[in-house]
Each structure stands twice: as C-alpha cells, then as structure tokens.
Amino acid sequence: MKPVDMDKFVEYLKFLGLICIRQTSSHHAFDYPDGHDTKLDRPVILRVHKDKQVPLLHMHTCLSTLNKTHKDFEEWFKLPKGKRKGK
Predict the structure, then answer these.
(1) Does residue 87 fall inside a structural domain?
(2) At 26, which CATH number?
(3) Each residue's pLDDT tens digit in the chain (87 positions)?
(4) How far apart are CA 75 and CA 87, in angstroms?
(5) Going by C-beta distance under 8 Å and a sequence separation of 6 or more, which residues neighbour residue 38?
(6) In whole angstroms, what is the distance from residue 39 CA to residue 50 CA?
(7) pLDDT (0 to 100) of residue 3
(8) Where in the sequence is the domain holding 76, given as residue range(s)?
(9) 2: which residues sit within 8 A by CB, 6+ positions away?
(10) Across the strands, what pairs with 20?
C-alpha cells in the first residue's frame, strides 16, 4: 500500500456518509452528521491544505477509527467512478 491523494481519501469519507464538522486553517474534522445511526468515538482529522497525500500511518489510524480496513478502501477505489458517489 502507498500513500493516497488527499482528495481521494476525502471522497471516500464522503462516500461513507461523513461530513466536515469543523475546520481550521490547517485541519478538517470529519464525523457522521447528527441523526446518523453511527457515531464515531472521535472525529477523523486531516491536514487537508498542507498534505497532498495521506501518509500510510495516518490513513491506517483513520480507517481504524472508522472500523474499516485497507481492503475496504481498496475495494471502493476499484469501483467505477460513477459508483463512488457518497451516501
């Protein structure tokens, strides 16, 4: 596995139903919206403007927070672009 482009990872988060709940000049926090049947223990934090790619360790931590695996992400990544739309 190699680092993934930040925009692709954000697209995956949106596919899962997450939204940006807050942002600072350098970090964006993603979580499920209020009323969603799933709630995270902590939000997924990304340095959207500074990093062009998500480092592997950071991606592993984010996926773990989401209860997802690298295989889940890779399967989504292999989908045709038309089927990658958010929930």
Answers:
(1) no
(2) 3.30.920.30
(3) 688 899 899 999 999 999 999 998 888 999 999 888 888 999 999 987 777 899 889 899 999 999 999 999 999 988 887 777 765
(4) 16
(5) 17, 32
(6) 27
(7) 84
(8) 4-34+41-80
(9) 56
(10) 30
* Cα–Cα separations (whole angstroms), residue 57 to 3, 24, 34, 40: 9, 22, 28, 19
Query: Which residue's structure tokens are 């045709």?
Result: 80
pTM of the model: 0.86
Total domain count, the chain: 1
In a domain, 86, yes or no: no
Residue 21 located in a structural domain:
yes
Give the position of tokens 């340095």: 47
- pLDDT, position 12: 94
